[in-house]
Known about the structure:
By secondary structure, the chain is α/β, with parallel strands linked by helices. It folds into two domains: 2-107, 2-Layer Sandwich (Nucleotidyltransferase, domain 5), CATH 3.30.420.40; 123-289, Exopolyphosphatase. Domain 2 (Nucleotidyltransferase, domain 5, 2-Layer Sandwich). It is built from 13 helices and eleven strands. A six-stranded mixed sheet has the order 8-7-6-9-11-10, with helices on both faces. It has a five-stranded mixed sheet with strand order 3-2-1-4-5, with helices on both faces. Strand 1 and strand 2 (13-21) form a beta hairpin. The longest helix has 20 residues, at 51-70. The two termini are 14 Å apart.
Amino acid sequence: xxxxxxxxxxxxxxxxxxxxxxxxxxxxxxxxxxxxxxxxxxxxxxxxxxxxxxxxxxxxxxxxxxxxxxxxxxxxxxxxxxxxxxxxxxxxxxxxxxxxxxxxxxxxxxxxxxxxxxxxxxxxxxxxxxxxxxxxxxxxxxxxxxxxxxxxxxxxxxxxxxxxxxxxxxxxxxxxxxxxxxxxxxxxxxxxxxxxxxxxxxxxxxxxxxxxxxxxxxxxxxxxxxxxxxxxxxxxxxxxxxxxxxxxxxxxxxxxxxxxxxxxxxxxxxxxxxxxxxxxxxxxxxxxxxxxxxxxxxxxxxxxxxx
Length: 307
């Protein structure tokens, strides 16, 4: 059975198409695509997803719908995260999607987003091995810890990279005081982690920020899933990239690093600082980058419930 999973995020919209073999209980990815319409642009101030962004989103969904039909998917699962959660026209958009594409969009809360992201990144062979997953999004950031048997911590923070950038970064390149204020807000949001049981845990990072940083660290100008998934980033790797891009204009970042930063060049610094602060508070020297996450978790959750 071929299944499609769409993750409508604040910055990106991602499509996964996978083949599920019921007899072998095996899920095999066939296609991964992402687009960056940034539907959350100015959402904090306006409280609405703008007409222009709805058009951009619709173009992406129409493209995905065509691909899903080509692959003859038996089921299409769609989730919406922070942007659709907080937008005053979120329900209206969901209803339009249902009428146009016959997709039921499940707007999930931060805790459910964390749970599904954790499920989607599970790779340990030891069912009792504890680890944490960090999902840095455009509108929010989630962290969840546990193992295959149980989850013992999960929390969603309102420190998405788009929201942080829009709130604090008014110059290009950013002023030093702008970066400092942005960094302070991250610290204020997550400071309690320094006293948590998560300190010194293994950390897996998902979503655009860690994937992009992995590409930059490896010198990749075009995204390569095989090289990014399960790659390692150290705290020093992230610190070095942060120091470099904090002094650059967005177009300079695009020119130097290529297609891997497309759509993220202006928010990558905020993502670096979010990741850096989580590592600092949890006393972690290195992370594993996962190219999976929420859209995989949605599929696996559906399969588990179907059983």
